[in-house]
Amino acid sequence: MVGLQWKRRARVMLTLLSASVCLVMLIFCIWWPSVTDLIEVEKCPACYGVSLCPAITRGLLTVDTFGSVAGFVNILGSKNVLFGMLGNQKVVLKKLGHAKELVNLDSIICEEANLGSSCHVNEAIWQQGDLIHSIRQHVANQGGGLLLCPTVVNMDHLLSNVFYKNKDIGVKVLHANIWTSIMINPEPLLLQVLPEQDGWPVAKYLGACGRVVVEEYAGEMLTSYHNAPWLQRANFAYQLLIAAHNFTDSHPLFGFYLTDISADNIALDSHGRLRFVDLENVIIVDRNAPVEDRPLSWNVPHVSETYDCDGCFAFSAQAICSHSRSDHNFYAVCQLLMTGTTVCRMVLRCLEISNL
Predict the structure, then answer these.
(1) Residue 131 in contact with residue 175, Cβ under 8 Å?
(2) Closest listed residue to residue 112, CA positions, set 46, 158, 165
(3) Cα 300 from Cα 253, distance rounded (Å)
(4) Sheet harboring 274-276: ordered strands across?
(5) Segment 234-270, tens digit of pLDDT
(6) Average of pLDDT values for 21-29?
(7) Collapsed DSSP state (helix, strand, coil) of residue 320
(8) Mean pLDDT, to the nearest integer, of 65-93?
(9) What does the pLDDT average to over 160-180?
(10) Contact 239/122 with Cβ under 8 angstroms?
């Protein structure tokens, strides 16, 4: 008798659970944002660009409603990272900031224009003054996630790829797009400065429409491979050190130092290649800075201070900017992604000997 009652209760609970799941899925479908809702193209040119807008108009870009639990979590947390399809290609859609950050940007634009409640961001952006001057101020003081040092005189050289890839866009509009990215998140700019097509270990940038950028889906995060076979993990370590070298030395003019390296910011693609998928926080050192702008320690390689504990990590932006080269990328990879400080000390010792 007791067993029969238990079975009845179990059936009732299972029915209620199924009904709850169906209800959640229905609400999810109703409230899940459409691509049109996401892009906010009416705010352009205070946006990231419009290169992908024709594809959206033709219905080629769609949001994947149930393809990822991460997408649902991100919507709830206002991280604004979603998955979708661009034609037959799996992609990631990013608004590049929390909802509050985007609202704050609109408020800044409207306050500067003194337009109050009648403000339209697409018009107010033109009253921000000299946008290039504002961009230089932000990258010189790390007003956002990007710091260019020890001087910003060569900023145009840094962004030359961005200007070239968007040469069909009016200069003033492009400046507004760049300003918006700098204010919120410089990732789309850096993905054009360091394009995947040229061999950089980053996600492939596909374009933007309004306040959404689209990147090629680079694979599962490295956090999913903690229990991978030793040989595969050794290959990961090798790739990470090569990436650290590339970011430091492979660009002819600038060194790129990533300050937010973690396993959940790195993906493994279908070819077994690691891809850095979050480039929001980067220090860029202009190795060809004018002589008069170079600190006294410029020609002395910068060596990071290490700690005798796994995962301990600290850095000084000022110290990195005071030297033409730094071991920061290797230090970050060793301290944050490799097991044990012994490996870290060995690698850093090798770099010190080789005078990076």
Answers:
(1) yes
(2) 46
(3) 18
(4) 220-221, 266-268, 274-276
(5) 899 999 999 999 999 999 999 999 998 999 999 999 9
(6) 44
(7) helix
(8) 69
(9) 94
(10) no
Token pair for 310:
């796994």
Closest by Cα among 246, 196, 192 to 218: 196
Cα torsion 246, 193, 49, 43: sign: positive
Could you give the CA distance from residue 347 to residue 337 in angstroms, rounded to a whole number? 13
Q: Which of 215, 212, 217 is nearest to 56 (CA)?
A: 212
Average of per-residue pLDDT across 45-67: 87
Sheet containing 254-258: give its strands across.
146-149, 282-286, 254-258
Per the listing, tokens 């230090």 go with 331
Q: Which residues contact 148 (CB under 8 A, 6 or more apart)?
A: 139, 140, 155, 158, 284, 286
Written as six digits, the tokens of 344 are: 């870290």
Q: Which residues of 64-101 are buried (b: 16+ CB within 10 A; e: fewer)?
A: bbeebeebbebbeeebbbbbbebeeeebbbbbbbeeee
Q: From CA 68, how far away is CA 354, in angstroms rounded?
A: 45
Q: Is the pLDDT of residue 84 over 80?
A: yes
Q: Render the burial of 314-349: b for 16+ CB within 10 Å, e for the rest.
A: ebeeebbbbbbbbbbbbbbbbbbbbeebeebeebbe
SS3 336: helix
Report the b/e string of 126-154 with b at 16+ CB within 10 A: eebeebeebbbebbeebebbbbbbbbbeb
Whole-prediction pTM: 0.84
The amino acid at 273: R
CB atoms within 10 A of CB 278: 20
Residue bearing tokens 């650290």: 244
Residues 312 and 165: their CA atoms lie apart, in Å, by 40
Amino acid at 347: V
> Which residues does 161 contact at the CB level (< 8 Å), separation at least 6?
192, 193, 195
Percentage helix, strand, coil for the chain under 3-state DSSP, each rounded to 5: 50, 15, 35
